[in-house]
Amino acid sequence: MLADWSASENQIIRELNELGSQWMDDLYQTDVYYYNECTQIRNSLTSDIQLIEQELEKLKVDFALNNEVLDYNCRVLKLREEERAGVIVQHKRKINRLTDRYRQLKEESNKAGQIRREEELKLIKEIEHLRKDCESMECKFSTIKGANDRQLESVCEMAEDRISELLKKLASIDERIFVEILEQPWDNLVGVSRHIQPKASALDSKQLEQVVVRLEKNLRFLTDTISEVDSPKERLMKALDIPDEHEFHVLLTDMHSVPDSDILKELACYIQQQRSRPADQPVTTRRYLADAATIRNHFELFKETAVPKKRLDMWKMLARALVQYERILRDRLTLAADVLALTTQSTALD
């Protein structure tokens, strides 16, 4: 038992010795570390102190230079202050002169303003006079333009009637070609018959009144708000914002054949088309009267679409055949004359 206690005590002593030696090593390493750190800090502080001393020397030099500069600036500022006082005196004199000049210019400006106001009154009177002349010229121009538009429309209508007559003659000739020459049933020449339309008769006053009554009946929700006008026609023109009599007549012509159920729809389409119409385009049922190019294209369409190309080719072939047939007949007539002449000669010889 004593041996065990002695062995354990020796083991504890050895462990304590090992711990003591380990702690001594750690303390030694710590001392070395802190010694090295302190050495580095001392060296860095020494270099910083040297830099600070150098900077202090520089600051001393700069301070001395700044003192010299400040002294120089003080002298310069004193000189400038003296110059400024002289300049202020000069400016005061100049301000006095400019004040007098300003007073003179103000008086001249007031006089010029009075003259300008008088001239403005004269110009306003002249402008009013010119505006009235312009309005009268616009009214005359509108009247002339309306007359020209109606004349253009009548000329186009005459041209359409003339084209329709020519197409009718062309259709009758084509029918004779099919029936008398080709001995075939005629197909009515669809392209020509599509362009041959009966001329629409103008509405009389009674028909126009009927259209006005129909429109007022269907547009009562608009005309009821206009009580200062008694005439149904004037109420409709004011409700639809149509100041021109010709445009209103065109509207009545368009609405004549429209049933009551479609009046609102057609009227909305018509108003939208008229609003999108250019200002220089006449108000008419002929939509192609927009400009010269559109009119030219419209009438050139007759030439391109009136007669089908197959029918033109057939006419050309028939013309060539007729020319050949005429040449053959002339040759036969010449041969017959020669035969007659030879017969006469042989008879005379006998």
UniProtKB/TrEMBL annotation:
Positions in coiled-coil regions: 88-115
Q: Which UniProt keywords apply?
A: Coiled coil
InterPro entries reported in the protein's UniProt record: DRC1/DRC2, DRC1_C
Pfam families per the UniProt record, alphabetical = NYD-SP28_assoc
Record domain Dynein regulatory complex protein 1 C-terminal: where: 305-349
On the tree of life, the source organism's domain of life is Eukaryota
Q: What is this protein called?
A: Dynein regulatory complex protein 1 C-terminal domain-containing protein
Organism per entry: Daphnia magna
- According to the entry, what is the taxonomic lineage of the organism? Eukaryota, Metazoa, Ecdysozoa, Arthropoda, Crustacea
